Each structure stands twice: as C-alpha cells, then as structure tokens.
Amino acid sequence: MGASLLFLSVSHAAGIQVGRTRIIYNADKKEVALPLINQEKELPWLIQSWTDTGDGKTRGPFIVTPPLFRLDPQKEQSLRIAWSGATLPVDRESLFWINIRTIPAVAKEDEDKNVLRLIYKTRMKMFWRPKGLTGTTTETCKKLRFSRQGAALQVTNDGDFYSIFDNVHLGSAAVEKADMVAPKSSVLIPLPTSANGQNVSWRCITDYGNAGEKFSTALN
User: Fold this and answer.
1) Most distant CA pair in the chain, distance
2) SS3 breakdown of the chain: % helix, strand, coil, rounded to 5?
3) What is the pLDDT of residue 117?
4) Which residue of 55, 66, 104, 182 lies most exposed, with the fewest beta carbons within 10 A?
C-alpha cells in the first residue's frame, strides 16, 4: 500500500466553511458556538480544534468540544467553546486564538496510491469580553491617540477593548504594518520612509469582521 504524504498549509480548508472570522466570548455566556460546514459532496473531513494564548503553544483557558471529530459531506456541526473558569482580567478584553486543523479523507480508489493529503489549519482571534466594560469597540477605536516617535508611529489605547486595524494612513502613506493595539496599552508601528504629515486616518475591524467607520486626527 502506498504511503500518504502530508503537507501543512495555513490556508483556509477548501472543503470546510467556518461560520465566522472571529469569536466574541461574552463572560455572561455559558459557551459560544462556532458552526462548521463540510461543503464536499463525497468525502468526509477529520477536524481537530483547540485554543492557545497567542504563542501557538500554550493552551488557552477554554474547553473545545468535540476536540476531534469526523464531519461527513454536506453536513454541519458546531464547535462548543466553554470557559474553564481560570482567572482572567475583569477590566479589559483578553485575546486568545482558536485553531481548527482539517484533514480530508482519501477516496477509496486512491487508498493504494501515493496521495498528497493537504492538512489545513485555520487560526482566528477569540476575544474574552468581561461584563461591565466601559464604552464600545467603536468608541475605543475612535479615541485612539497617535504620535510620531522617530521612524515609528506610537498608538495608545486607553479603552477597555482591543482595536484591530483595517488600515492606517499617515498623510497619504499607508502604514502597512499596523495590526492591533491591546486595551490600556501602546504599540510602536514602523513607518514607511514616504510617511510624513501630521494627519492620521484609520479604520478598525468590527465584531462582524468588516471595516468600521473611518476616523482621523492630528498627531499628538
């Protein structure tokens, strides 16, 4: 019998549709659900899921069920994500990641052949949102503060929520390396050599995964 070859890809599995691009876990909920659909017409997929703290190694304080299961063609099943009860900050959001590894089955006619099996891994943000936070994600995004520190743009977030950037511009230059800024913290983002001027404009990603309202301000 021919041995199957394994190849790791970080792209989205062609046969598995994930129901959203990010997860918001409100602390007053017992669990959150993430729907998965196998769009294949004939072959099942094996699905393995877990959470981590952001380093890709340390497991997050959440239980994902089922952690490993088979999803038959044209079927849907939801992952159930439940908080383990571990202590987390109550005055700000916390960021974790959920990982979904999907492995396609091999068709019977290919079982005796050398088959290249693609193992896909989808990785998405999961925000733990405590009760009683002040403001909203939009208000937090709007109130970000910007200053120039040499060849870098300093962004300060005084709010309780993460701000995930869709885009940032200093003058007419796009700040390509702008990613996100955690609550109650600052980040330094490298600026392109063409960046100048005193006006910053930006958009943040909403809870629904789309670009939010455009804001602008002068550098501090």
Assistant:
1) 67
2) 5, 50, 45
3) 66
4) 55
pTM over 0.85: yes
Amino acid letter, residue 22: R
How far lies 176's CA from each of 148, 162, 169, in Å?
16, 19, 9
Helix (H, G, I), strand (E, B) or coil at 137: helix
**Which pLDDT band, with edges at 50, 70 and 90, does 108 fall under?**
low
Q: How far apart are CA 183 and CA 160, in angstroms?
A: 5
Q: Which of 37, 36, 87 is nearest to 61 (CA)?
A: 87
Sequence-separated (6 or more) residues with CB below 8 Å from residue 169: 175, 200, 201, 202
**39: which DSSP letter?**
-
Domains of the chain: 10-129 (2.60.40.10), 137-218 (2.60.40.10)
Query: CB 151: neighbour CB atoms within 10 A?
Result: 11
Mean pLDDT of the chain: 90
H or E stretch covering 83 = strand 76-83
The pair of structure tokens assigned to 111 is 């079982």
Average pLDDT of 60-88?
97
Which structure tokens are listed for 112?
């005796």
- Calpha distance 124→101 (Å, rounded): 12
User: Using an 8 Å Cβ cutoff, are 88 and 129 in contact?
Assistant: no
The amino acid sitting at 189 is I
Look up residue 158 and give its DSSP letter: -
Q: What is the pLDDT of residue 27?
A: 96
